[in-house]
Amino acid sequence: LKYSTKYDYLFIFIGIFGSALAGVNWPLLNITFGKVVGLFVKFEHRNPNQTEIIDTTRDIFMKDVYYWSALTFISFILFVIGNLLTLYSFQLFAFNLTNNLKRRYFHSIITQELAWHDQRNSGEFAARIASDFKKFENGFNENLGLLIYNVVGAAMNLIIGFYYGWKLSLAIVAMAPLIVITSFVMTKFQSHYTQKELTAYSSASSVAEEAISAIRTVFAFTGQYKELKRYETRLHPAMVYGFKRNIVNAIGNSINWATLY
């Protein structure tokens, strides 16, 4: 948030509000819809063989159906509005923040001394702007809103769960520490492997850019296969780190789902 503008703070506030609104209304939407279904089940169970239904009973039934259906519709509208606010606001915030950082990053590069540039590969800068900043933007767009939505939704579900059945909710909460620990360890490993993967991709991209920019020289000395081999050598660590990251993600999600089951 250091490089955010006043408009970005407005987008953040709107996005948080939209995420919280969607997170609160999704559990409420399930409850109201369940009430509507429950009314039909109770009405059918109460009058299984009656061809003629008393008008009073039917009026009460229809009144309850209209009431809970209206609440379901309102919850659905609020849920949709919350999602729209979340996606629109956080995407604008991520776009503005990423562009601001790109300008500062480029300004920092071109203001360095020549000795600093001699020690680094120029192709790495372009690769980092193309790949690293894209991942940075993805972390701040709808994913940030999804995080807030899940946190608010989990808190709301917990409250509703204890209200309707505290014994079952207490049994589920007892397994929460295992899920939290697993998620924390999984996140640490993913961050480590992602950083290694990005570094390897940047190194491989610099090799590709060098070869393409000097393609005439490469063909003149028949160095195509040599450059290809060098590119594959730089690219192999990225594949290994990506494989390890996916393995950690699969193991962590498997443990979490097994714990919930």
UniProtKB/TrEMBL annotation:
PROSITE patterns: ABC_TM1F
InterPro entries (UniProt xref): ABC1_TM_dom (IPR011527), ABC1_TM_sf (IPR036640), Type_1_exporter (IPR039421)
MF GO annotations: ABC-type transporter activity; ATP binding
Any one GO cellular component localisation term in the record: membrane
Domain called ABC transmembrane type-1: residue spans: 13-261
Transmembrane segments annotated in the record for this chain: 7-29, 65-95, 144-164, 170-187
UniProt keyword Transmembrane present: yes
The protein's name: ABC transporter sub-family C-like protein
Lineage: Eukaryota, Metazoa, Ecdysozoa, Arthropoda, Chelicerata
